[in-house]
Amino acid sequence: MGKKFFGIFSLFFFLISALFYALYAEGVPYEVIGRFLSLPSFVIVAAFSGLTYAKKDKYQFNELGKVLKQDLILGGWVGTIIGLVIIFGGVNKSISNPFGNLFNAISACMVTLLYGYMIGNIIESCWPKKTV
After folding, report:
1. Given Cys at both, which of 54, 55, 75, 128 links 48, Cβ 3.0 to 4.6 Å?
2. Between vectors from CA 32 to CA 27 and to CA 33, what angle results, nearest 5°?
3. Spatial separation of the C-alpha atoms in residues 12 and 34, rounded to whole Å
């Protein structure tokens, strides 16, 4: 179990280090990191773990990690679709509207995909293997 925690810690350490370095090298303000944190995105992705609970009788215990990963990724995609609908529904239809606002909003809705893939892969990596 220690190797799994070390691997997950390494993942987060190098991911965050690379993000800070990229922002520093490009001269982007550090407030941009706040765009990667979104409670509604996390809640949407976590809500899809209920699908795994509903399907738990169909799978053996050791297979539920992969099923949970797939459901969390599905939650990320559904959250992205919800975000896109909200974004495109609120776009100002005037000709003078800059595209920068649209791209900022699209980047915000992609956070659910990030959470789905990251949390799903972490849970799958920690799930116990099948014992014979």
Report:
1. 75
2. 110
3. 16
- Type of residue found at 56: K
CA angle 59, 114, 62 (to 5 degrees): 20
Residue 48, both tokens? 């899809």
* CB 43 within 8 Å of CB 119: no
Question: Which H or E run includes 8?
Answer: helix 2-26
**Residue 74 near residue 51 (C-beta atoms within 8 A):** yes
Alpha-carbon distance of 51 to 72, in angstroms, equals: 9
Nearest to 38 by CA among 82, 97, 96, 91: 82
The 3-state DSSP class for residue 37 equals: coil
Give CA separation, 42 vs 101, 115, 119, in Å: 23, 7, 10
